[in-house]
Specification:
The chain contains 20 helices and 12 strands. The protein is mainly alpha-helical. Helix 4 packs across helix 6 and helix 9 packs across helix 11. It binds one RNA strand through helix 5, strand 7, helix 6, helix 7 and strand 12.
RNA sequence: GUUCCCAUCGUCUAGCGGUUAGGACGCGGCCCUCUCAAGGCUGAAACAGGGGUUCAAUUCCCCUUGGGAGCACCA
């Protein structure tokens, strides 16, 4: 029976609507795979008007940390995945889990196993040597409890059926069948009396009225085992959906070696949450030929039927392209705010002066065309941050040789004669180039190098005008000879 | 080893028995152009292999091969 106290938190739960959950274990950051699992759960809940719960699986006291919990919550918040009701902490429910184990024990669906760790290791070793499948051999399954050694610690194991088969009806993979004799008697309660994950998920999902268990495909095998517990308790089974895993660009398992696994790392690399949602969604899910799928559309369209079955690889080039799209799509004001916040998050924080923000705002329309990430946006905007002559980067230094400096010097009077509007500046430069038998580009590149310190920038004459006559001339004169 | 899952361009994918096998990223070319982008046009690029089923297989079935996951008193 569900405990009353637990259900109180979910008064908003509509019994007729789906209930989904994301259930990470707080042993590390929210990584990209977890983020996608959370996203798919969230999308389906929002699509159906159902409920999306967050449960922290912290039954492993050794490895669970408060820092990891915070990281997961932050990651979810950044991704824009809001959950309904309060966060549920699994460890707090250990009493209830034990209660279920007791019930199982009482009704004969579970038994005490007194095998020691060394004993089990030997057993597995022998099985491996003999080339046999490695699994618990059921040595205490049918023993008379009277044989139990007194005062020895024991675990509680499920007395699983070993005939017939268990079928996982999967929303994504279809029916997956497991012969019951392949599944051994899993531990429900450890020798210290704490519940294992296998027991805890089943009990919590039932108590939380979860209707759809959607998680990584690494749990597919577990589904069969969990179904056995559910069957033993006579509970209704949830619908399952196992998402294919995400691999690294090389097709191998996504690991630290590929870098940047935590969702926060993507934030720090300058990706927008909307980009991450769109990218992760398309990694394994499709809607015809659609590529650009804003979150609102995703909610409208999402369904498990269109989830692919095969594992996908991360493609950073495509991520960049998508991010560039969403950066261009973002309003100039919002981007200034994003970039400002991004720079302030840095260590050490970079606080932009008011003047720089003003310039940023004016230049943003041009700047954002050229950036795929906030990092690139920052780099492209650097020349706006402070006054005075620019330091030249390598390429700009190469351009501003003696000849170019002389040309720059000859160009200056022509510019000074204008009203410093972009249009006037450009036509002055054009006619000067024509008179000198040069192309506009020949005249423009030295100007650009001196003005920005780089060979790449937003349109030159716009930038001259934006920086103003005074500031521009200071920068240009510094390199005119 | 064993159980389970998967298999269309380099990558993400559309396809749900009959298609010139489509789109996107990336790559090449052209156009635009003060640089770089953005944008437009365009090119190269795929049904892992072998058996069946069928008038007809990318599509359905089997095998092989290749990837991946699970096999703990972790989750």
């Amino acid at each position: 029976m569900p405990t009353a106290s637990l259900l109180e938190g979910f008064t908003m739960t509509d019994k007729a609507k789906p209930v989904l959950r994301f259930a990470p274990s707080p042993t590390g950051m929210l990584h990209i795979g977890g983020a996608r699992t959370a996203l798919f759960n969230w999308l389906y809940a929002r699509h159906t008007g159902g409920t999306f719960l967050l449960r922290i699986e912290d039954t492993d006291r050794e490895r669970s940390t408060p820092e990891a919990v915070a990281a997961i919550l932050n990651g979810m918040a950044w991704m824009g995945l809001n959950w309904d009701g309060d966060v549920i902490y699994q460890f707090a429910r250990a009493g209830r889990h034990r209660e279920v184990a007791e019930t199982l024990l009482k009704q004969g669906s579970a038994y005490r196993c007194y095998a020691t760790a060394e004993e089990l290791n030997q057993m597995r070793e022998a099985q491996r040597k003999a080339g046999k499948p490695v699994r618990y051999d059921g040595r205490w399954r049918d023993r008379d409890p009277k044989d139990a050694p007194v005062g020895t610690p024991f675990v509680v194991r499920l007395k699983a059926r070993n005939d017939g088969e268990t079928v996982v009806h999967d929303l994504i993979l279809g029916d997956v069948r497991f012969a019951n004799d392949q599944l051994d008697d899993m531990v429900l309660l450890r020798s210290d009396g704490t519940p294992t994950y296998m027991l805890a998920v089943v009990v919590d999902d039932f108590d939380m009225s979860v209707t759809h268990v959607v998680r990584g495909a690494d749990h597919l095998n577990n589904a069969a085992r969990q179904l056995q517990i559910i069957e033993a308790m006579g509970w209704p089974a949830p619908a399952y959906g196992h998402l294919p895993l995400i691999n690294g660009p090389d097709g191998q398992k996504l690991s630290k070696r590929h870098g940047a696994l935590a969702v926060e790392a993507y934030r720090d690399m300058g990706y927008l949450p909307e980009t991450m949602r769109n990218y992760l969604l398309r990694l394994g899910w499709s809607h015809g030929d659609d590529e650009i799928i804003p979150t609102a559309k995703a909610i409208e369209w999402f369904d498990f039927g269109a989830v692919g079955k095969s594992p996908a690889r991360m493609d950073y080039k495509k991520l960049d392209n998508l991010n560039g799209h969403y950066i261009r799509e973002t309003s100039d004001d919002d981007l200034v705010a994003e970039l400002t916040a991004f720079l302030e998050r840095r260590s050490p924080p970079h606080i932009l002066p008011m003047m720089a923000r003003e310039r940023l705002k004016s230049a943003m329309a041009s700047l954002k065309e050229r950036a795929k990430t906030l990092v690139q946006l920052d780099q492209g905007a650097e020349f706006l941050y402070a006054d005075g002559p620019r330091d030249l980067d390598a390429a700009a230094g190469k351009i501003l040789g003696p000849e170019a400096r002389a040309l720059l010097a000859r160009t200056l009077p022509k510019l000074e004669a204008t009203d410093w509007s972009a249009m006037d500046l450009e036509s002055a430069a054009r006619s000067f180039a024509e008179e000198s038998g040069l192309k506009l580009g020949d005249v423009a590149q030295p100007l650009r190098a001196a003005l920005t310190g780089k060979t790449v920038s937003p349109p030159l004459f716009e930038m001259l005008s934006l920086l103003g006559r005074e500031e521009s001339l200071i920068r240009l004169r510094a390199y005119a000879a």
